[in-house]
């Protein structure tokens, strides 16, 4: 059965369940991450990996256990529909974030931060897994997270409101999802605990970044692959460019300014409501 036939077949539109999704995603992540606080070494790393997988598993189960053929088709297209990716837009987003990092470092010079930040770090910020393991972790995290967040989560919020408020809510919930990592030795987040400012900055920074990722997602017709590429580049830049914690606070201000410009330049995308209540049907051309 074709997509347009599915939308016109008289079946009830799929009803997204964002609250249940977040409850389960948090539950199945934190039930592994919290024990990892007290379990050192490889067993703790395994617990962290399992917790990282939770949003993707929950997202996939929501789709597969639904009775909506459109929802299942939609996930498949978002995952493997390479023809949907606007590669020029992805490249622009990547170059844009590189510019954000460069601008942040230059601005930080005004506050006494060193020019040597324009260099690569020798190691990753988290410890205990080696360089190869750390690179693999960054890569897997970028891929797996986006399967969860873009496979179901963002659409489940966006189905009920415009993408501006969706980005605000998603950025907040996504940031807070990382909370247990603050207490797991060796993680990037645990390294921020030397200062309350660094901790607050980490959680606040996820909100404007959420707007940019939403833009990448929507501009490529809701492609998960496009978001994976962007997320991987962001993670790599945050890990391997030798920015100081103070400069990352400056970076949050720059990211916020860029996100504001993106929203203003894409008002119809962020403030349009034509998709509300019929996200899948709108995508697949129901008249």
Q: Could you provide a short overview of the structure?
A:
The protein has helices at residues 3-7, 18-36, 41-64, 69-80, 87-108, 130-158, 163-177, 196-219, 224-240, 245-265, 267-271, 279-283. The chain is mostly helical and 287 residues long.
Your description of this structure?
It is a single chain. Helix 3 (41-64) runs parallel beside helix 6 (130-158) and helix 5 (87-108) packs across helix 10. 69% of the residues lie in helices and 0% in strands. It starts with a helix and ends with a helix. The longest helix has 29 residues, at 130-158. It has 287 residues and is mainly α. The relative contact order is 0.16.
Fold blueprint:
Elements: H1 3-7, H2 18-36, H3 41-64, H4 69-80, H5 87-108, H6 130-158, H7 163-177, H8 196-219, H9 224-240, H10 245-265, H11 267-271, H12 279-283
The amount of helix comes to 55-70%
Q: Tell me how many strands there are.
A: 0
* C-alpha end-to-end distance: 17 Å
Radius of gyration: 19 Å
Structural class: mainly alpha
Figure out the total of helices.
12
Key structural traits:
single chain, 69% helix, 12 helices, mainly alpha, 287 residues
């Amino acid at each position: 059965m074709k997509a347009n036939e599915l939308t016109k077949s008289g079946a009830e539109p799929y009803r997204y369940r964002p609250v249940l999704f977040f409850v389960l995603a948090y539950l199945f992540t934190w039930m592994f991450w919290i024990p990892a606080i007290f379990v050192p070494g490889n067993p703790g790393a395994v617990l962290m990996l399992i917790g990282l997988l939770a949003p993707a598993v929950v997202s996939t189960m929501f789709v597969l256990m639904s009775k909506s053929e459109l929802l299942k088709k939609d996930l498949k297209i978002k995952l493997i529909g390479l023809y949907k990716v606007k590669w020029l837009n992805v490249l622009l987003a990547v170059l844009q974030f590189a510019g954000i990092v460069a601008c942040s470092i230059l601005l930080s010079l005004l506050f006494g931060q060193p020019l040597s930040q324009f260099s690569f770090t020798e190691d990753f910020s988290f410890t205990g897994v080696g360089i190869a393991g750390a690179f693999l972790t960054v890569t897997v995290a970028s891929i797996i997270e986006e399967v969860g967040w873009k496979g179901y989560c963002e659409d489940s919020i966006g189905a009920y409101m415009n993408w501006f408020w969706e980005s605000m809510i998603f950025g907040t919930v996504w940031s807070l999802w990382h909370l247990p990592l603050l207490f797991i030795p060796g993680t990037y987040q645990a390294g921020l605990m030397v200062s309350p400012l660094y901790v607050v900055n980490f959680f606040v920074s996820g909100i404007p970044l959420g707007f940019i990722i939403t833009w990448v997602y929507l501009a490529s017709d809701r492609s998960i692959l496009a978001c994976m590429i962007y997320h991987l580049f962001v993670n790599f830049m945050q890990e391997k460019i030798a920015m100081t914690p103070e400069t990352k606070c400056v970076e949050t201000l720059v990211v916020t300014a860029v996100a504001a410009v993106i929203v203003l330049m894409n008002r119809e995308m962020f403030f349009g409501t034509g998709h509300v209540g019929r996200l899948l049907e709108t995508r697949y051309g129901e008249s």
